[in-house]
## 1
Amino acid sequence: MQKIIILFLLLITFSCSKEDSQEKNNANDLGGFSAFIDAKNLRIFAKEGVSEVFLKNVGKAYEAMFEDASNIDESMRFHYFSTSKSEFVYQRVGLFGENDTNFDPGTPPSPFDDNVTDYIWELKEEGVEQIGEVIEHLLHTVTNVVLFLSYPNEWDYNNSSSLLNKAMQESIEKGVYDISSYDEIKDDKEIYNKILTQEYAYWLILAEWDYFIIAGKRMEGITGNEEFTIGTPTEIATQLPLGHKLYKDYIEKILSIPDSETIKSLF
């Protein structure tokens, strides 16, 4: 179900307040959205029906990824934040149940334009599924949008020689990352590359954070799942050295591992 929603929104996508501030306007003023907040230079737009608490908690979850940590490179983090702000990167949040064929993804007001990926859905129930929904799609925005814009050579999903693509190919060749479920979109090369790399980066970070259980993504009998079979930092370091290096050289220097109890308390 989630893959269908992601593909639908990506196909549509391709054809400044202080942090934690919130504004509410009519849908016409915000291009089909009813509210927004800013968190760490990321604007988060919400559709009508999304609860104020959920919207704020999505912002808090994003902020939790940028706490102080010993491995942070302040210049890289500054570059990340500056790029997010100058390129008007944004995240969309919707209410689950509206994602049918008549769903209007919205067009936020200028200068917010194409620097966005998919939606975060507010689900009917809290718990691991909601945590997984939020963490996954925030990380898609981190890797597929902000890092892509910040480090266009290293994080270019369309360049087979980029560090991102080389690390992903390593995981495919070693049988860790199964991409067979995406065969239906092979004909659209750009969308295919975009989705394969954003899903790979998400699984890589989730494993390096040891978050598979917290996000409800672990399959019984293995540390990972049927799509990405390993789910611990040790396994990544020993089995996927290129992926581990990509994480150490970029993700670990910009993001911190969000406190799991904080994330659980939000969702």
Note: Residues 10-27 have pLDDT under 50 and may be disordered.
## 2
Amino acid sequence: MMSRSCADCHVDVYKQYAQSVHGKALVEAGITDVPACADCHTAHSIEHPRTIKFHLASPDICIRCHGDEKLMKRYDIPTTVATTYLADFHGVTASLSKVSDGEEKQLVVTCVDCHGVHDIRSPGLVGSEEMKAKVAGVCAGCHKDTAADFPAAWLSHFQPSLQHAPLVFFVDLLYRILIPFVIAGLILQVLLHLYRVAIRR
């Protein structure tokens, strides 16, 4: 197993990995679908997880599995964890960010900021309250002097629904109806105007 080969030298990192949601699945349950060392670092071009390059590339690494509908269905994990991040401000910013040689910091929040690198956490593993506290700490890194419940303004990895964020759900539904109606009205107005011009000629 590649992870145990890496553990010969990287003992502390392996211990962290073994306690993560992926490590527990691999080591304790024998599930081989989870990512191991070489899946994130690759065997011959190992990138340090604290570099800007790795930080910005981490969503792509996570989405390889978490965006795979067939794989996620096997473990009853919704692929919305990927799509909601990509649609969010932070996901869009990460997608558009480019790394330049002189940059020391990128103010972009990616998967590893909230979930960890080798010690990847999930609400199911550490509990929702601990996860909320971790996310609040990440938010406070950029959004200074914010209240402890600041992350509650974020929809997390949920799609708006009648059960979760019903107000956002209804506003989104309104826009889905209103915007096509307005565009259709504008097109109709332009066509009627052209028709009137043609008739007058």
Note: The chain has three domains: 1-45, 47-157, 160-201.
## 3
Amino acid sequence: MYAIEYQKPKSVAEAAQALAKSGGKALAGGQSLVAAMKLRLAQPGTVVDLGGIAELKGIRKEGNALVIGALTRHAEVVSSSVVKGAIPALCALAEGIGDRQVRNMGTIGGSIANNDPAADWPAALVGCNATVITSKRQLPAEQFFKGMYETALGPHEIVTGVSFPIPKRAAYSKFPNPASRFALVGVFVAQLADGAVRVAVTGAAPAVFRATAVETALAKSFTADAAKGAKVDAKGLNSDLHGSPEYRAHLIPVIAARAVAAA
């Protein structure tokens, strides 16, 4: 074991100041950072625990948007009557994350800041055309996710919440790895309030992306058959022991069709 300094600030401003002084790592739910530290993949000199910051927690409606605080746990999204009444697809998505311990400890802010290529939340953000709120600014989700484990967060910048415009209808479906429940391919389909269709894919590439071929098909006919009939290019998709790029390209319209049927 190596020595670390542990800090637990009470406000976002204090947390940002602590990160600036120490150059350390922010700790949200700890489901990714602590595991990486155990494997020596991350060795921060200072860990700044955000768990004591009340302003980062909670779920509320603001006009035609659903705002979820960064430290809101996945299990809290699952059980929230506010989320169920506004965007029930988010409840279903959160319920499929990891196991019970992960859902009870992991947070939406930690998930999107980590930006695992197979994480579920990035698909929901891009699919709903959500806005990421940080300690410094607000960013459209498509500008926030940059690449594998890479986001637009700057030094000492902290995710404070996510604002989801409430869509007409939406659903998420995934083909999970049976051991981890991470998405081999996960697809979030949403028809927004203005009628626009968005289809966001996770697990299939180094980062979340929009499946424009499926969007075009669904814009003409919002049906499972239309989604299943779309052709997705395999170029740039992941290749590993779980599946080839061609296999993932085949799965995307299939999983999209299931999401449309659920929506």
Note: The first helix runs from residue 12 to 22.
## 4
Amino acid sequence: MAAITVGRVRLVVRGEVRVPGDKSVSHRALMFGSLAEGKSRVRGVLQSADIESTAGALRALGWPVPPLAPDMAVEGSGLSRRPSPVSRLDLGNSGTSTRLLMGIVSGYPVMSTFTGDASLSRRPMKRVATPLTEMGARIEFEGEKDGLPLTVHGGDLRALDWKLDTASAQVKSALLMAGVTGRVAVVIREPAPTRDHTERMLRAQGAAIDVGGGIIVLDPPAQLEPLDITVPRETILAHQSRF
């Protein structure tokens, strides 16, 4: 509700404020749309610097993600398509982009170095790197740091049964994505519930994924079906008043 005074008259304007699309779902919609077998439709994607980081990294890896728009068609290449070799992926300030893409890249026999801005470079990445290493990926940090830059050597993964030390939707999602691209089973044990966007989207794409009692079980899919998704957002109404 906005109040405007014109001379002696005070007007209160009513309308609605539309909150932008959810950032977590927007990241995943572009990633899973790229991995799907066929064309996905994504409406309401958040147009922000972090989502641009995801889109730019996917393009650098060879997935034809179009410019961000309110209504997008994302042409998926299927799980069997190998990403293009990339010497460096710049993820800007996006921790979600970095952690989830680490999982995706780990499932393919490619090498990619992840970089970011000064703030992102200080964020912890070993909590993702440790279970990915257990799956068979090789992840190298520069020096003794627990952050970027880091290099992922992916491919030839093995099944994982992992208990998270700390509840984290990003770590959970990275491991599930590695299971999808590496074609291996994944069991994740959560100490507390976290956002389940990844599980819901995988299920919508035909993946066999069971959730219950703090345990997520992924049976690796042969392929992912295309998405048809409207990124959720909230609408806040402002009511009319007169003075």
Note: The chain has one domain: 2-238.
